[in-house]
Amino acid sequence: MGEIRGFLGRLKRHPAVRNQVYSKDFLYSVGRTVEKRGFEEARLFLWDSHYRGDLESQAVSLLGVLGEMEDVAVFRRNRALSGRVIKGLHHYGR
What is the pLDDT of residues 74-87, one digit of tens each? Predict the structure, then answer.
């Protein structure tokens, strides 16, 4: 539980997350991709989305979040939890 709380605390303070306006639909798509297919597939989805002007800044921000999330063992083991955190990122952004 401490790992999760620490990660969420870092996420709240991270400027790339805090200053980002997220689309709930986009977060849902990325979160579902993490849940169903894992981090690598989500990363590919984000790189593909990166080339859409309206999603570029969100995709870059989420690529950073995924990288940090993979460093936390509980998120590597539990893709459903990882997806849920990503889906809720709109609470941390602007």
Answer: 999 999 999 999 99
Cα 25 to Cα 15, 62, 63, distances in angstroms: 22, 14, 17
The per-residue DSSP string of 65-78 comes to: HHHHHHTSHHHHH-
Q: What is the pTM for the complete model shown? A: 0.89
Q: Which of 25, 36, 24, 31 is nearest to 65 (CA)?
A: 31
How distant is the alpha carbon of residue 36 from its chain centre? 14
Q: Distance between CA 89 and CA 10 in Å, rounded?
A: 12
Domain boundaries in the chain? 21-91
4 Rama sector, left if φ>0, alpha if ψ -120 to 50, beta otherwise: alpha
Tokens of 59: 């995709």
